[in-house]
Amino acid sequence: MAASPIFLCVRNLSMPGHAHPPLDVPAETDTLLAGLNPEQRAAVTAPGSALVLAGAGSGKTRVLTTRIAWLIATGQVSPMGVLAVTFTNKAAREMLTRLSALLPIRTRGMWVGTFHGLANRLLRIHHREAGLPELFQILDVQDQLAAIKRLLKRLAVDSERFEPRRVQAFINAQKEQGLRPALVEAWDPYSRRLLELYAEYEAQCQREGVVDFAELMLRSYELLERNALTRAHYQERFRHVLVDEFQDTSLLQYRWLMLLRRADNALFAVGDDDQSIYAFRGANVGNMARFMQDLGIGEPIRLTQNYRSHAIILDAANAVIAHNVNRLGKDLWTAAGRGEPIRHFEALDDAEEARFVVEEVQDLHREGLPWGGIAVLYRANAQSRALEHALFTAGVPYRVWGGLRFFERAEIKHALAYLRLVANPEDDGAFLRVVNFPARGVGARTLEHLEAAARTQGMSLWQAACQGGARNKGLAAFVALIEDVRAQVRGLPLAETVAVTVERSGLLTHYRGERDGEERLENLQELTNAAVAFAIENETQDLMAFLAHAALEAGEYEAAAHADAVQLMSVHAAKGLEFPAVFITGLEEGLFPHENALVEQDGLEEERRLMYVAITRARQRLYLTHAQSRMLHGQPRWGLPSRFLEEIPTGLIKPIRARSSGSWGAKASPLAPGHASDARTTTGGAPGPTPARRTDYPYALGTRVLHPRYGEGVVAGYQGQGPETEIRVTFPHVGDKWFILAYARLTVRGGVARG
DNA sequence: TTTACAACTGTTTTT
DNA sequence: CAGTTGTAAA
After folding, report:
1. Near strand B (CB < 7 A), which residues?
2. Which of A355, A497, A546, A647 has its CA 20 to 30 A from that of A374?
3. How many Å apart are CA A204 and CA A39, to the nearest integer?
4. Which residues contact A236 (CB under 8 A, 6 or more apart)?
5. Which of A517, A488, A502 is nearest to A412 (CA)?
6. With contact defined as beta carbons under 8 Å apart, do A438 and A506 qualify?
7. Long-range pairs of A628-631 with CB within 8 A, sequence gap ≥ 24
8. Beta pairing, strands A266-271 & A50-54
9. d(Cα A13, Cα A636) in Å, to the nearest integer?
10. How far is the CA of A418 from the C1' of B6 (A)?
11. Residues 614-673 of chain A sitting with CB below 7 angstroms of strand C
12. Given this model, what pLDDT does residue A722 score?
């Protein structure tokens, strides 16, 4: 497989990255700096290394791109001497787009990309030094989990005790800390076993020539660390390293960046500790303080003027985030007016919440706001269902972000597995995925034999299958098919290769025969389109590059991405975006903040930052909604309003009542007892089982109750029904406890409860 | 070996 | 509720 042009141009190791004569560009440097406020200007022109503490909506991306343009235009660096790192592909693209608008330069060869994308780039170039085959494959999260399950099975590990996801999380956590198995300390037998599994997993990946996300980072880190010449080359080249969303860097990524640093290079980091919401993925906010220390930076440059939101919205955001203790500290301000109050709506259940959102959305649209100017945010993707249903029923166009992405869909993964086998038939993971899909009579028994043969002879499944001859008819057919396709696509352009492989795989025929195969067929067609687009955009026909792209950029191929539609997404997915109108839904204890987060170290603070991110997405109008009950796992579940609602000064909030007759929607005081048994009617539509069942619960939410062991607490929610109904009580010192209602010995202060 | 269906279980956020 | 795993029958 020929290396792509991308790789060829970076292969030119003699490319000087240091100063060069100023570009002959029409953009005067004064023009570049015009319109920046003093802090932004200071950041753009900062000599040497700097840390920029950039609040939400403070022009962070503008500063970053303007700095690159300014450095180039003033001759301080050549385009090839810049390394700019982001976390999302979207952000990287955005940066390149803005950059080419500022300067007439060719951005294609520039090193602007995500950490993982750049790590991949390094490893492709230096695969030999890194100890990887030229055609190494990238495992996405699903692939990695499948590989781990396979490993556990092969080693006959009790996967009840060692849950695959646990093992996966353990391995990734170690890698994100830069730790190989030999460096991890394990004191108890369980940890020791985990460690063994980590080591075995590594061996398996190495054998199969595959690399997971964390491995991309770790392997490229080790490459730079161990090869002084290579390191020196990139240090010489990248005179300016710029990092976006610095608060999201992991320890390993931090050290990766530091390897590229030389005394006369400049590191420019932009971040906002208040928007650090990826700790669960290894992000380490502490990197910001460490950065200042390691680089001898006294104070960060603070960008506190917000150009996005009205003052009321900022006040709310500032008030919420002020409850966090661990902060570098900054308050946002705006020159814009106060704006409208924040609207708050309490719904009886998630269905009513969704109906409220739809009605308001329709009003906004009638007032002239395009659908696309409206975002509906939620904490967990599962919440999108009720909202989608209501929007769909009302005929409002909407687009859901997140969830299952294009390259993660089963049919696409299948097609990609065929392509991976075309690129490299030794890929066991890909082999197992499609050896019997579509079904061709290769069952568990055949695979057992094959795996045994492969193991004893130390070869891949593919080799074993070739060698074992045609003991199984289906297996022989599969081998013949793959060999045939490999021969057929040799020398074909990328898109043809994809089209031919998909066709020959039999996937199309298979899905044509399925009831719900229509959408899958469309997706498979779309895969060829994606290949065409990829080939044009990157000027390459390299299948490996396309497969890497598929793993590193799972989404972004949805149809109608640019249509005017209401945007539905998780708060995480909304980071970096802004909308004239924003709904934050599901503001309930247990959901937002999420109950899992409450038991994690610093979990509540991270949830609060998430709330901060959510609020600061809004430019003019902000809605907050919560529901008294919500369907969860097919059961209604009750919760108190989120504490974040109370952290916003009441003066900024205007409660909204449901508009339909007979409804009830004023903001309730969460500690006011007594409304659980009030019979209430809901808006016109079917209210679901809610009102009837509510009367079954003996204590109102918020009721103070006494427990013989834990003392006084507050009723925080219910789950389930009938004799298995559980009650959740929050105790001041003990936290949340669940009890079976029928057995819980609870008393209400001042009397015994009904029930 | 494949298919169909029952039982079980987890369930946040994502490059 | 939905996705996965286990079991029984074809």
Report:
1. A 87-89, 114-116, 141, 165, 213, 277-278, 280-281, 379-382, 402, 436, 439-446, 472, 474, 552, 554-555, 569-570, 572-573, 594, 596-597, 600, 632-633
2. A647
3. 51
4. A17, A18, A262
5. A502
6. yes
7. A628/A346, A628/A347, A628/A348, A628/A349, A628/A690, A628/A701, A629/A348, A629/A349, A629/A350, A629/A690, A629/A694, A630/A349, A630/A350, A630/A586, A630/A588, A630/A591, A631/A349, A631/A350, A631/A386
8. parallel
9. 62
10. 33
11. 631, 633-634
12. 58
Decide: A309 and A57 in contact? Cβ < 8 Å: yes
Q: Is the pLDDT of residue A696 over 80?
A: no
Chain C positions with an atom below 7 A of a protein C-beta are 1-2, 5
Cite the active site residues of A: 60-61, 244-245, 275, 617
pLDDT digits (tens, 9 = 90+) for A714-733: 777 777 665 556 777 777 66
User: pTM of the entire structure?
Assistant: 0.81
Q: For residues A113-135, b (16+ Cβ closer than 10 Å) or e, as one string?
A: bbbbbbbbbbbbbbbebbebeeb
Alpha helices per DSSP H over A458-542: 461-467, 473-489, 494-505, 507-512, 517-538
Residues A273 and A285: their CA atoms lie apart, in Å, by 6
pLDDT at A17: 42
pLDDT tens-digit profile of A453-484? 888 888 888 998 888 765 678 888 899 999 99
CB contact burial A607-642 (16+ within 10 A = b; e otherwise): bbbbbbbbbbbbbbbbbbbbbbbbbbeeebbbbbbb
SS3 A165: helix
Six-digit token string for A64: 């970053």
Cβ–Cβ < 8 Å for A644, A724: no
